[in-house]
Amino acid sequence: ENIFDRSRMAPKTPIKNEPVDLSKQKGCTPERNPITPVKLIDRPQPDPWTPTANLKMLVSAASPDMRDREKKKELFRPIENSKQSDTPDSLQYDVVDDSTVDEFEKQRPSRKQKSLGLLCQKFLARYPSYPLSTEKTTISLDEVASILGVERRRIYDIVNVLESLHLVSRVAKNQYCWHGRHNLSQTLKTLQEAGELQYGELMTFFQHKEQDLEYKFGERKKETIPDSQDRPLLDFSEPDCTSASANSRKDKSLRIMSQKFVMLFLVSKTKIVTLDIAAKILIEETQDTVDHSKFKTKVRRLYDIANVLTSLGLIKKVHVTEERGRKPAFKWIGPVEFPGKTDEPRGHSPTSDPLPGTQRGACAPYQICATGKQRFTRHASFNGAQPCEGTRRKVSSEPNSPRQERQDEYCSKMINLAAVCRQKIEEDTRNPSITSPLSLLPVPGDSDFCVNPLPQAVFPVVQGDVPSLSLPNGISPQAPHPSTPAASKTENGKPTLLPNQPFLCFPSSSLFMLCSGLQENNLRDTLPAAEDVGKRSAEAQAAVPPAVCQKRSSHKCASPSAPVDDEEPAAKKQTMEESDVPLSLVVPKKPFESPKAESTPGSGYASAVHLEAFDLDIASPAALEAANKESTKPLNSQEQEKWCQNKDPDEPSPGKEHISKENSNQPFPPQYLYVQPTAGLSSFNFLFSANQAPGAVSLAASQLPSLSVPCVVVPSAALASFPLVCSPAITSPLSPVPDGSFSAAASMNFSMSSLASTTPVFIGTTAVVTPKVSPAPSVDPQQPSHPALHLSPVLARSCGAVKLDSPVCMGHPVTLLKLQQPSSTPLTPKSIRPARHEAFFKTPGSLGDPVAWKKNEGNQTRNASSVQRRLEISSTSPD
DNA sequence: CGATCCCGCCACATT
DNA sequence: AATGTGGCGGGATCG
């Protein structure tokens, strides 16, 4: 009751009104009046410093007696003061203080006193951590705000974060329901899983570099992945779920950010996350590079979140010292292991929700996790047929557009990750001279590369395809490899793939990137794991072609080893097999949509990830998995696994070296892009070797039209470089397309992929390998760019980051892109992309922004040089 | 001076 | 239109 009164009386305004300045000055003579209450007013609060104080306040609020005492102390001041009227307090506080020194401080309301963290503590003190299930505690924002003596806005900050962890949920306007920490572990678990999917690699990656190299990517993934797969993603849905549509809003970035932030901790091996990295990763859309301001804003938000999380006792502030110096960071001090299996409760049955309204997996804003994916895959298999689409969606539960958003998020994430990686790489590079060649490849637009949300939504899905795929998978038993199974097991297509390799997952299940060694190579220096990669890559190269084929033909692949050798044959077979796929080709729809999606996304992705997005449908994750497995396994599977596993950080090089040497031509090896088949397309899986030539991609675009094939692959012109694997059927048409040479290869099969890889993607590893010398030859289009030199910084970075993985990347300098755009523009999807890219760039202001550019440029140069070095190094010394 | 982050404007959403 | 929400970033404070 008091509260209300007081609140009204004094509450808000007073504080604000008061000019701070005066107060300070006055500080000396505090108190009294409130004329210019300013700081003085604050004073009252001051005392709260101690956490306990806050509690006391609360208590005091409860009991008048306490209050008086406290009052002296001034703890409660906010609320109370209103009532008490400031008078006395001021005086007392000083007196009261224990520490003499503090008086001043106490007096002035210092900012700390008003900190969000403190406020949050007060807030939390009001509610039991583990409320009885029976009692439902409702929270009135107005009430709380007045009680705590703050504006409502601040309460939102707190509640939003709490909501992200499901400690509270919104029940109605101005009303929240307090759940306490009962579900916290589950929530964290869910987040962890989701985080693994989304950020696992990155984090691992980083950490490796930075901290311990011990880690292995492969291992790491394996660990996490397994579990995560089955589970539904996060359901963060929380509240929103209720209104699936609701997502629309901006999506409460604070909430999402909070979840993402927590995820980073959970997937972090060290449990320490630096603010800057978190910000980079969390920045969506824009690539890091673009705005500095954006970054700043993100950091601010992170501080807000961190304050709340700190109050919850989940993290604590620490500093990490890196090469550059000491950086602010936070360490997770909350639970790491989540005993309760979340699964049980929710996992299998999505329906069960702990939280009342929120859960529904589908809804969750978080979609990221893509709850849908996993399920889809499976479902898809079931469906088998077209209907799938419908089903699938249902399954996904997302009726609406929301997905797109999700996808976007993913995209953004990916981008961010890429950026982060990039940066890391860059940094690393510095040290040694390791610039990653990748960096060269910039893909400007990539950032956008958003997911192809549309595709998913749009496409009906392909489940039919999936099934087919799945079948193979099922069959796949042939591949005894453990890894495979694991993958298969995991529902998520993505995860499965991952086992050994580092990969990037797209939310949309449609694309997967497998990075074999790229990163490693690049990073290698820095990274521990790199070595593996190298090996892998080498092998991968070999394997790749087959893999490509296999994807669908996994059956064939079954005899993995063979395929490798017989690439061609395999390819044929594949094609044969794929014939099925062709069907998918039929599907025209995709093309349409996909183009868009692709175009945009693709470009974006490409840039970021290098992926090409294809819009295949996301729906069929299984297919992907299968494909992936197959692809990799058949040829490489074992090897790869070995690599992955084997790779010991210590001596990765050996293997690699060999490989590299062997494959010198195709240094890149390992990366693959996976595209899940969409419904129609589903049958096709695309694997792109990172190496591929750009031309292929472009071709694809052109092709597409004609074919209307599902293959969406459209690499952005700039990006171009990706080779696409086309289903055989498609191939014919395609083959011609792109670059003559490449295209042919591409069109044919994967085998070509190998070719492609060999081909100089100028940017690709090859580039690295063969130092600049003649990267160009391979691709005309690209040549112009001469990426290395000109790469737009941004791109380069992004590429680097992303690319690190894939040598594939094409580095196109920004300039190039532009050029291409005009030229290529026209019809092909490519053209589209380019355009977008530009737009993209511009938007971010990157281009426009002088500052950004400058930065970029600087980087570029740097990169270039480093790259060169790198190339040399790589070429010379594989190690 | 960089790290923090309070404060509150203001846009968008909901009622 | 009013009110609820919450993005966002200026600029104050802290260290």
UniProtKB/TrEMBL annotation:
<feature type="compositionally biased region" description="Basic and acidic residues">
    <location>
        <begin position="639"/>
        <end position="661"/>
    </location>
</feature>
<keyword id="KW-0805">Transcription regulation</keyword>
<keyword id="KW-0539">Nucleus</keyword>
<dbReference type="GO" id="GO:0010604">
    <property type="term" value="P:positive regulation of macromolecule metabolic process"/>
</dbReference>
<dbReference type="GO" id="GO:0090575">
    <property type="term" value="C:RNA polymerase II transcription regulator complex"/>
</dbReference>
<feature type="compositionally biased region" description="Polar residues">
    <location>
        <begin position="858"/>
        <end position="879"/>
    </location>
</feature>
<dbReference type="Pfam" id="PF02319">
    <property type="entry name" value="WHD_E2F_TDP"/>
</dbReference>
<feature type="domain" description="E2F/DP family winged-helix DNA-binding">
    <location>
        <begin position="249"/>
        <end position="334"/>
    </location>
</feature>
<dbReference type="GO" id="GO:0002040">
    <property type="term" value="P:sprouting angiogenesis"/>
</dbReference>
<comment type="similarity">
    <text>Belongs to the E2F/DP family.</text>
</comment>
<feature type="compositionally biased region" description="Basic and acidic residues">
    <location>
        <begin position="65"/>
        <end position="77"/>
    </location>
</feature>
<dbReference type="InterPro" id="IPR036390">
    <property type="entry name" value="WH_DNA-bd_sf"/>
</dbReference>
<feature type="region of interest" description="Disordered">
    <location>
        <begin position="542"/>
        <end position="604"/>
    </location>
</feature>
<feature type="region of interest" description="Disordered">
    <location>
        <begin position="62"/>
        <end position="92"/>
    </location>
</feature>
<feature type="region of interest" description="Disordered">
    <location>
        <begin position="627"/>
        <end position="667"/>
    </location>
</feature>
<feature type="region of interest" description="Disordered">
    <location>
        <begin position="841"/>
        <end position="879"/>
    </location>
</feature>
<dbReference type="GO" id="GO:0000981">
    <property type="term" value="F:DNA-binding transcription factor activity, RNA polymerase II-specific"/>
</dbReference>
<keyword id="KW-0010">Activator</keyword>
<keyword id="KW-0131">Cell cycle</keyword>
<dbReference type="GO" id="GO:0000978">
    <property type="term" value="F:RNA polymerase II cis-regulatory region sequence-specific DNA binding"/>
</dbReference>
<keyword id="KW-0678">Repressor</keyword>
<dbReference type="GO" id="GO:0045935">
    <property type="term" value="P:positive regulation of nucleobase-containing compound metabolic process"/>
</dbReference>
<keyword id="KW-0804">Transcription</keyword>
<dbReference type="InterPro" id="IPR015633">
    <property type="entry name" value="E2F"/>
</dbReference>
<feature type="compositionally biased region" description="Polar residues">
    <location>
        <begin position="81"/>
        <end position="90"/>
    </location>
</feature>
<feature type="region of interest" description="Disordered">
    <location>
        <begin position="382"/>
        <end position="409"/>
    </location>
</feature>
<feature type="region of interest" description="Disordered">
    <location>
        <begin position="333"/>
        <end position="359"/>
    </location>
</feature>
<dbReference type="InterPro" id="IPR003316">
    <property type="entry name" value="E2F_WHTH_DNA-bd_dom"/>
</dbReference>
<dbReference type="InterPro" id="IPR036388">
    <property type="entry name" value="WH-like_DNA-bd_sf"/>
</dbReference>
<dbReference type="GO" id="GO:0045892">
    <property type="term" value="P:negative regulation of DNA-templated transcription"/>
</dbReference>
<keyword id="KW-0238">DNA-binding</keyword>
<feature type="region of interest" description="Disordered">
    <location>
        <begin position="470"/>
        <end position="494"/>
    </location>
</feature>
<feature type="domain" description="E2F/DP family winged-helix DNA-binding">
    <location>
        <begin position="111"/>
        <end position="180"/>
    </location>
</feature>
<feature type="region of interest" description="Disordered">
    <location>
        <begin position="1"/>
        <end position="50"/>
    </location>
</feature>
<protein>
    <recommendedName>
        <fullName>Transcription factor E2F7</fullName>
    </recommendedName>
</protein>
